[in-house]
Write a structure and sequence with these properties.
Blueprint lengths: L4 E5 L5 E3 L9 E6 L6 E3 L7 E2 L2 E2 L7 E3 L6 E5 L18
Parallel strand pairs: 1-3, 2-4
Antiparallel strand pairs: 3-8, 4-7, 5-6
């Protein structure tokens, strides 16, 4: 998959793999229209968080659709070793 794109699954049960590299805030949206669902696979060092759950880190982790018309919007949230990321700050007026 490529960052900042949307995908509609309309046949089969494809495995869609996250991009190896992303920038903070990159988005991917996937909708299950027809077929038998989809699996989102990861690369080394990646994980997917949904609500309070998190997939296994790395290539062994994945998430899957469970119902017809499931849609997911994934946003890249990069972490430093401390778990925090310095972002540019702006003053809102």
């Amino acid at each position: 998959m490529q960052p900042n794109r949307g995908y509609i699954v309309n046949s089969g049960a494809p495995t869609l793999t996250l991009p190896v590299k992303s920038q903070f805030g990159d988005r991917i949206e996937i909708m299950y229209d027809t077929g038998t669902g989809y699996i989102i696979a990861q690369n080394a060092g990646q994980s997917i968080k949904i609500n309070n759950s998190s997939s296994t880190v790395g290539t062994g982790g994945s998430v899957a659709s469970t119902n017809y018309s499931n849609m997911i919007s994934i946003v890249a949230a990069l972490q430093t070793p401390s778990g925090l990321r310095n972002l540019p700050q702006e003053t809102l007026r």
